[in-house]
Structure formats: C-alpha cells, structure tokens
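CORE FACILITY INTAKE
Project code: CF-77B
Contact: R.S. (postdoc)
Sample description: multi-component assembly, two entities in total
Requested service: structural model of the whole complex
Turnaround: standard
Below are the sequence entries exactly as provided by the requester. Do not edit them.
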Amino acid sequence: GENVEQHPSTLSVQEGDSAVIKCTYSDSASNYFPWYKQELGKRPQLIIDIRSNVGEKKDQRIAVTLNKTAKHFSLHITETQPEDSAVYFCAASFSSGSARQLTFGSGTQLTVLP
Amino acid sequence: DAMVIQNPRYQVTQFGKPVTLSCSQTLNHNVMYWYQQKSSQAPKLLFHYYDKDFNNEADTPDNFQSRRPNTSFCFLDIRSPGLGDAAMYLCATSKQGGETQYFGPGTRLLVL
C-alpha cells in the first residue's frame, strides 16, 4: 500500500518568515495530493491540493510543488501569521474504484511566533 | 450551512460497552469514509462506503462495524470498546470518484 512520510514533525518560525513542509510517497499510482490544516480539536480542512499533471500550484500565501519523478511534494507558506499555527497533514491519493484512498503523512506542528 | 455533521461531539463509554457514532451529510455524496485519529497522529482510514457497497481496510479490527441505511447517514459501531479505541473519529464524504474529501467535526471517544 501507499506510504507517506512527512518532515519535519515540528516547525517554529518567526512571524513573516516562510515555512516549508516536505512529503514523500511510495506508490506511483497516486495522482492527487491534498494538504490539510487541522487546528486543535477541529476537523482537517483542505487548504490546497495538486494533481499529478501539474508541477506547482499557488493560492495567495500558500504554494505546493510536486516532483513526480522523485515522488515528493512540498507545502510552502510565505509571510506566515500567528493564525497559520496548526498541524498540517499531507496526503497522497489514488483512485480505488469509485472512491479515493487517502493516505496521510504523520503531520507537522507549525508554530508561528509573534 | 453544515455539510458533514457528526453526533455526538464527545462520547464517553465504558470498557466493553457497545457504542455507536453517527454521521450525516447534506452534500448528497456517494462516498462516506470513517477515519480514526489518535492523539498527535494522522487520520487512519477504517472503511468507506460507495453507496451501499462497503469497503473495509485490511487492518481494521473486527470490533469496528459500520452501517449506511441511506445516502445521508452512516454509523460507526464499536462492539466492545477497549482503552486503545479512545480517539477522535472523523467522518468524511466525497463525490463518486471525487478527489476532495470533506470532513466532519469529529467525535471524540473516551473509554473508561
């Protein structure tokens, strides 16, 4: 099955600095890579995603890059703000019939220091 | 405009006492998923339904069962909860073949 590794497990940055979280996946059949933000005690919320036919995608301060050959993808947050503090999960997904199997990374606790 | 609703938000049960968690959705999505998320860990898929077609993950314990009586509702039954089953249980939905999964707020289960 799919295996997703995520690094680092914790990340502290100063407000205004950039944060980068990296993930690798094992199954070349995976073709969809979402990133979720989860605040303490709340549901995971999709913040950005990328498909395997795209190398980079940006949405305001958030960007994701994908290297299919190397099987790794990264989340970049620029101009970080205290409200960006949360746990971030990457995931890799492949189609399984009519449903999608999502395998999550282990998560990164991001702390933005004011 | 709640989309995926889980009840209750917090559930306390006793060791070995059956418990049922519920999930409902207003999105009319074909696919519903149940995940288990233990403290400081990633969500782990337990099983999913495509309409009434049930798909169990290979490593999901037999202690966990699910029912989906109609499109809108899905239940997670834990037949004999152990201390190790204390976790947040997340329900999610997606369209048929859809990539995006929409998560509910979760039910936090405590086993005494």
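Facility notes:
- Chain B has no helices and eleven strands.
- Chain B has a mean pLDDT of 93.
Invoice: internal transfer
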